Amino acid sequence: MAASITALALLLVASSSIAQVPVEGDELARSVVEKADRSRLPQDAFQVDVAITTTAPGKDPEIRKYRILSKGNDNTVVLTLEPLIDRGQILLMRGHDLWIFMPNLSQPIRLSVAQRLTGQVANGDLARANFATDYTPRIVGTSDCGGELCYALELAAVDRSVTYHRVSYWISQKTGRPIRAEFYSLSDQLLKTAVYQNVRNLGGQPRPTEILISNALRAEEKSLLEYSNLKLRDLPDKMFTKEYLKKFDY
User: Fold this and answer.
1) Angle 62-68-69 (CA atoms, 0-180°, nearest 5)?
2) Direct distance between the N- and C-terminal alpha carbons of the chain, in angstroms, rounded to an integer
3) Which of 54, 95, 131, 248 might form a disulfide with 223, Cβ 3.0–4.6 angstroms?
4) pLDDT of 28 strictly over 50
5) For range 215-231, the mean pLDDT
6) pTM of the model
7) Which residues pair with 223 in a beta bridge?
8) CATH T-level fold of 2-247
9) Which string of DSSP letters, residue by residue, matches 40-67?
10) In this structure, are residues 65 and 82 in contact, taking their beta carbons and an 8 Å threshold?
């Protein structure tokens, strides 16, 4: 409940008037987004666990747990850990191509990154979160984000293969960490909002360890992503192939 109240306060503050400034060069905008990407997760090969708790009125909270293995910007595997009935399901992301492997099927199935994974979370939210490579950023102003000055950016999708058509993004000028984001569909409809919160040491540096995602049309429907156990790993290229999916050892 406290996290939700904090998130709501940040949403209200960041939604206040944006001070218009001269549009900055593409180089600065891209460097700001790249720094925000690095503040969330390493650029080197790593492993991290993610617990997703989804809440909605009249329903019991649903908890799902995943393990992400990632190497560079273009290779990611997402292992389903819980619930046990879904254990063994694996997402494989190579570039902008996404497949799911299910133990009861002989071949992986192609999926869309925009397709819902669970709650308010899309496949691409876990499998590919590199805004710097998926979007063309532009600084449109500055904003007061809960007492700290933020860059306000507009991110346009490089093509239709990415998760969202457009993203409005607020990044702290002081820390370089993301504060808030709004995600839009191809028809430019606001789909959901995200607040990056609970900054603490993760993998050797301060990072936002939680992302609270809220449905734009039904704000009471939320998914809280909690990141833990981040560590760098030596991940061979063969792990990120469809042929290797049956060999993963949990």
Assistant:
1) 170
2) 33
3) 54
4) yes
5) 96
6) 0.88
7) 54, 213
8) outer membrane lipoprotein receptor (LolB), chain A (2.50.20)
9) HS-SSSEEEEEEEEEE-TTS--EEEEEE
10) yes
